[in-house]
UniProtKB/TrEMBL annotation:
Pfam families membership: Cys_Met_Meta_PP, GHMP_kinases_C
UniProt EC number: 2.7.1.36, 4.4.1.13
Record InterPro entries: Cys/Met-Metab_PyrdxlP-dep_enz, Cys_b_lyase_euk, Cys_met_metab_PP, GHMP_kinase_C_dom, GHMP_kinase_C_sf, GHMP_knse_ATP-bd_CS, Mev_gal_kin, PyrdxlP-dep_Trfase
Reaction equations catalysed: (R)-mevalonate + ATP = (R)-5-phosphomevalonate + ADP + H(+); an S-substituted L-cysteine + H2O = a thiol + pyruvate + NH4(+); L,L-cystathionine + H2O = L-homocysteine + pyruvate + NH4(+)
Cofactor: pyridoxal 5'-phosphate
Primary location: cytoplasm
GO biological process: 'de novo' L-methionine biosynthetic process; isoprenoid biosynthetic process; sterol biosynthetic process; transsulfuration
Domain GHMP kinase C-terminal positions: 756-814
Annotated compartments: Cytoplasm
Chain spans, region Disordered: 1-28, 610-629
Species the sequence originates in: Mycena rosella
Signal in keyword set: no
Protein's name in the database: Cystathionine beta-lyase
Similarity remark: Belongs to the GHMP kinase family. Mevalonate kinase subfamily. Belongs to the trans-sulfuration enzymes family.
Length: 911
């Protein structure tokens, strides 16, 4: 049964430009040479043009009567069709407007009552068209497992079977059909039946089914033949004149032939087919081997255990550049797809750029889910379509996506990344699944984020100036507790103990434009959604609840965007040790807590699993992740970035026009120089950590004068519009101040005394600029005067948005404790609230759902999933109320003890 044909050598007997030699006969050109040499000896160009001209003409004046109307024939298309026939070893080629148009033309050969036997793992579009002709054309369609030729036999009827439709390898499971064996079986049992092969996955370079008994072959030329995703086209090849005539008649009748411009582009694309394919499939082999070695079920004919590999090797000359793999969990796969950067999320394949997709959600979504399940198409399947990028970059990007999604994790013992299997009973993985995947909305998540001081650059940072900022030791905390009553509630303990709940179904879901997998929130807020929230769930909140309403709007906005379509039912409680609305970034720390909680509940982020403990606690050579698990920096930067993006979205809802500095500090912690992207003054946008800031001592004084950042920022914006020269010169000066401060902080030559003196001078200077911008307040000037007066002589500036709120005073190292006490007393006397703070601490934190590792006892690393939140709440009586223990205890906490209480709950994992 095995054909004697060598798949690597195309057979063709069409005229080709093979040079004649009187001295010795030449071998036929090989494939890539055929691709590159577009020449039809029967259709020589009158000027000898190197590239086939585009005959952009609908009509022809009948010269030679070859062409009259481009629907029926066009010289550019003739060149293309000759070329396609040549590289496909075919007598005839026809080109139409898409791959589906090609199938449509082929299916029109059928008559009502005819029967088709088709594969059961077909492209969704093929399936859709077959369903259509079944219901509208009276054609009977049998879907069978074509990977087993024997399963085709019972369906072959000597007269009724009119067509067999095969794909090999199939898309997306890469199943192999023995085209040669099935063609032979069909010809023996139903001689009139036509064997049709969709060859798109292979292209004529790797597989030429006409050589194996097929009657008609079609390709979506949108894929490999053109190679650049810049056109749609379909090609049909065959050897039989009668079939060609019938299909040419259809094309002429319905008018779906390929347009001249697209013919030109396709012709150009085919020249590099072999070159592209060689690179793409070499990289595919590397990617498939990488995934396979991690333990993911991977589908690629180049893998040693791929079913049907020998058949494929016999029929085809390569394995192509599409592969797929399973993670074991649909949401996990969605996160992998969403986390990829270089791999573009897109349907289709065959392009020079690499693509990633989930067939069940994208290309095969048109197949009924039950049918998908019946046909064994895993919902978690990820398809990779490999392009020509550098394989190292592609694998690196994929690895990052797998790590970010939690599909692989570093194993300290093996010193390598290993797959996290969501569905095994392994104790560790079961806990991870419970926490991060399966029931994330059924557990409590406790999170926190710090406030900040801006030492230099507030307001100016909105307009592109670099700000110097650091986290403070005051934080906002957020707790989600599951509800099972279809309701969503928020409790803002710091804002008049505000509590509100909504029926989830009553929320304005219709106004939500869901983000596609991996799509990021746009730079601008969705005003339709904001209006719908204000007119719906928040309509009954008046001006007196302005602050809570703003926070609820930010929360609901993210909930609706992130919970579509999960619609989890839970309560979110927020409370802070930070003064709300005092310029210390309370809104950003609230936004960060809300964003983190919502991402966790919606499984859009998950914690990496805890690594296996190494043998000794003092193992200084333990890798980073292991050390992280000992307490602190455990949350990967990519997860932090994701949180930061959503915290910025919430800040936009609360603020109008935030620069992003506050949420960046709330998420990343430490001290940093932050420049807003897309604005010019601070050079290119981004953030850089600043060393040396942490050692500084600051006094924060809350004027207790309420103010609204949104209004203050808008006020500066207005001033900039009205007095651009004044504001621009202030912005330039503040930029120099920030730069000077960074230089001073990084200068090893500068003595401590000199550094503090330099910073003090810059503080005064920056404050004066803020006065000119109109954002100071008499209370702030009083605080400045009090701290500057003898005997203190300290430098103070407003921090944050100003207009009241807080002032920050730099306290030199040698400043006497007694002087500090008396200064604080003096400020308190004036009804201000002074507070000594340390800066540069941790950013966003999540209370670890893992038990502290009992090193040396691997089995003790994971708590039973039902104990992931602390079993005992220090200092709080066990609750009788229906609220969870933790929520009750949290809501009872007040003021300064909150931080201590939260710390004592367990291990916090930080960015
Ligand atoms: N703990 C909290 N609970 C609920 N909402 C909060 C909380 N903290 C802040 N917010 C929201 O943020 C708003 C305060 O934001 P605003 O930007 O005016 O102050 P800030 O962030 O402290 O100041 P700055 O932006 O100058 O640092 C509040 O009105 C409320 O809507
Ligand atoms: C006033 C401002 O510069 C800081 C608020 O803390 C606003 C911002 O940067 O978003």
């Amino acid at each position: 049964m095995a054909p004697t044909i060598d798949p690597k050598v195309p057979r063709h007997d069409l005229p080709t430009p093979e040079p004649e030699s009187p001295l010795r006969s030449r071998k036929p050109y090989r494939f890539s040479t055929l691709c590159a040499t577009v020449e039809n000896p029967d259709q020589k160009d009158q000027y000898g043009s190197s590239s086939v001209p585009i005959y952009q003409s609908a009509t022809f004046k009948g010269v030679g009567n070859v062409y009259d109307y481009s629907r029926s024939g066009n010289p550019t298309r003739s060149h293309l069709e000759h070329h396609i026939a040549k590289i496909s070893s075919a007598e005839h080629a026809l080109t139409v407007s898409s791959g589906m148009a090609a199938l449509d033309v082929i299916l029109r050969i059928l008559k009502p009552g005819d029967e088709i036997i088709a594969g059961d793992d077909l492209y969704g579009g093929t399936n859709r068209l077959l369903t259509y002709i079944r219901s509208h054309g009276g054609v009977v369609v049998h879907h069978v497992d074509t990977t087993n030729p024997a399963s085709v036999l019972p369906f072959i009827h000597p007269t009724k079977t009119a067509m067999i439709l095969l794909e090999s390898p199939t898309n997306p499971l890469l199943k192999i059909a023995d085209i040669a064996a099935i063609s032979k079986d069909v010809k023996e049992r139903a001689p009139d039946a036509i064997v049709v092969v969709d060859n798109t996955m292979m292209s004529p370079y790797l597989q030429r089914p006409l050589e194996h008994g097929a009657d008609i072959v079609y390709d979506s030329a949108t894929k490999y033949l053109s190679g650049h995703h810049d056109l749609m086209a379909g090609v049909i090849t065959c050897n039989r004149d009668d079939l060609k005539k019938a299909m040419a008649f259809t094309i002429n009748s319905i008018g779906n032939a390929l347009a001249p411009n697209d013919c030109f582009l396709l012709l150009r694309g085919t020249k590099t087919l072999a070159l592209r394919m060689d690179r793409q499939q070499a990289t595919s082999q590397l990617v498939a081997t990488y995934l396979h070695s991690l333990g993911f079920p991977t589908h690629y004919p180049g893998l040693p255990d791929h079913p049907g590999r020998e058949i494929h090797e016999r029929i085809a000359a390569g394995n192509g550049a599409v592969l797929s793999f399973e993670t074991g969990d649909k949401e996990l796969s969605e996160r992998v797809v969403g986390a990829a950067r270089l791999w573009g999320i897109s349907v289709s394949f065959g392009c020079v750029n690499s693509l990633i997709s989930m067939p069940c959600v994208m290309s095969h979504a048109s197949i009924d889910p039950k049918l998908r399940a019946a046909r064994g198409l895993p919902e978690d399947l990820i398809r990779l379509c490999v392009g020509i990028e550098d394989p190292v970059d592609l694998i690196d990007d994929l690895e990052h996506a797998l790590i970010d999604a939690g599909a692989i994790a570093f194993d300290a013992q093996q010193n390598k990344y290993i797959r996290v299997v969501p569905s095994t009973n392994d104790e560790l993985n079961a806990a991870v699944q419970k926490l991060g995947l399966a029931e994330a909305d059924q557990q409590e998540w406790f999170v926190s984020a710090p406030g900040k001081i801006i030492l230099f650059g507030e307001h100016a940072v909105v307009h592109g100036v670099t700000a110097v900022a650091a986290s403070v030791d005051l934080r906002c905390y957020g707790l989600t507790t599951p509800r099972n009553d279809g309701k969503l509630s928020v409790h803002f303990a710091d804002i008049d103990n505000f509590y509100h709940e909504w029926d989830i179904e009553s929320l304005p879901w219709d106004a939500v434009t869901p983000l596609a997998a991996g799509e990021e929130h746009s730079d601008v807020l969705d005003q339709v959604l904001i209006d719908a929230i204000c007119a719906g769930p928040l309509a009954d909140l008046g001006e007196d609840a302005k602050s809570a309403k703003a926070a609820a709007l930010a929360f609901l906005y993210m909930y609706l965007m992130l919970s579509h379509p999960r619609r989890s039912s839970f309560n979110f409680t927020a409370r802070a040790t930070l003064p709300v609305g005092a310029g210390l970034g309370s809104s950003a720390s609230f936004s960060t807590c809300a964003a983190t909680s919502l991402l966790l509940v919606n499984r859009a982020i998950m914690l990496p699993p805890p690594p296996q403990p190494t043998s000794a606690p003092a193992d200084s050579s333990a890798p980073h992740v292991h050390v992280s698990h000992q307490g602190r920096r455990f949350i990967p930067p990519t997860t932090a970035e994701q949180v930061n993006k959503w915290a910025f979205v919430a800040e936009k809802v609360l603020h109008g026009n935030p620069s992003g500095v506050d949420n960046s500090v709330a998420v990343f912690g430490g001290a940093l120089a932050y420049t807003r992207a897309g604005f010019s003054l601070g050079g290119k946008g981004g953030m850089e950590p600043i060393q040396g800031f942490k050692s500084l001592k600051f006094l924060l004084t809350n004027s207790t004068v309420p103010r609204d950042t949104k209004k203050l920022v808008a006020g500066v914006g207005l001033l900039k519009t009205n007095e651009p020269e004044l504001v621009d010169s202030i912005l330039k000066s503040i930029q120099s101040i920030s730069e000077e401060a960074r230089r001073a902080l990084a200068d090893p030559e500068l003595s401590r005394v000199e550094l503090l003196a330099a910073l003090s001078a810059l503080i005064n200077e920056n404050h004066q600029h803020l006065v000119t911008l109109g954002v100071s307040h008499p209370s702030l000037e009083t605080i400045r005067a009090t701290t500057a007066a003898a005997p203190y002589g300290l430098s103070t500036k407003l921090t944050g948005a100003g207009g009241g709120g807080c002032a920050v005073t730099l306290v030199p190292d040698d400043f006497q404790d007694s002087a500090l006490d008396s200064l604080m007393a003096a400020l308190t006397q004036e009804k201000f609230v002074p507070y000594l703070t340390s800066v540069g601490g941790s950013g966003m934190g999540i209370l670890s759902p893992y038990t502290p590792p009992n090193l040396g006892h691997a089995s003790a690393t994971v708590v039973p999933p039902d104990q992931v939140t602390p079993p005992q709440t220090p200092g709080v009586e066990p609750a009788d109320e229906p609220l969870g223990d933790l929520r009750l205890a949290f809501e009872k906490q007040g003021g300064p003890q909150l931080a201590q209480w939260a710390d004592a709950l367990g291990r916090w994992l930080y960015v």
